[in-house]
Amino acid sequence: MKTLKRYQYERYAVLCRLAYPRVFKQTRYGFDPNGQRIINNSRGKTLIRVLWSKDKEEVIVIIKGSHSIKDWLLNFAMWHKSCQATLGLPYSIHAGFYSLLHQESLPSHRDDRLGDSVYIRLETVLTPLINQGKRISLTGHSSGGAIGLVFADYLERKYPNIIKRVVTFGQPAIGGWQFRRHYQLSRRTFRICCDIDIVTFLPPIPLMYWHVGKMLWLYNERVYENTPTILRLGRSLLSWLIRPFSYHLMSKYIRNKDFFDDH
């Protein structure tokens, strides 16, 4: 399995965080002045940013997580919905996240057509870049990471070897066992979990939902690889219980020495 280097992690993490503000200046991060396209959701709000440069091979697709009450309510639609008829994928996914992919994308550019869904709009934007020989990396936070997995798999099947990597942050599971079995990008997918982020354990239905890719758990100032969910949950619960006592350790006092001025 491929590795995720530190500079790559930092780049994707920074882009994911900065994609939430309404204004995003892509030139500050090495992309061309015209190297950004926005994909709106059904309310005309930014859901996805596509970033690229003429002199670089990699196109980066950034997908935002839930940022409205309606988006959060979709998390409760935990039944499965088949992707076969629309995306041609041999599995079902979380019905709420299916809705995010299939919602109408309101136009944000003169070339956008009325009535296109989010995944159709995104593919339309990416196709000319793919024809130029560029490869696609997808990154997303929370539900944005989850739907990024499905779209990446969809693209990889249509344009073999077009996906460079998929990096998700705080991502809930999106599919069942058939999704895990048929997902083609496990060796190029990195799922970042931070400390005791409860969203990474959702949906809370054992054996109905499965994760894919390589899991990197940022916990207690270390990175753990592919820690089993039950072990990660156990350590997280234990951490909640003992955290008040951990602040009594001398290591905590030493760590905070920089709070004092030199005299």
From TrEMBL:
Residue ranges occupied by any Fungal lipase-type domain in the UniProt entry: 61-205
Listed InterPro entries: AB_hydrolase_fold, Fungal_lipase-type, Sec_MonoDiacylglyc_Lipase
Superkingdom, taxonomy of origin: Bacteria
Descriptive protein name: Lipase
Taxonomic source organism: Vibrio rumoiensis
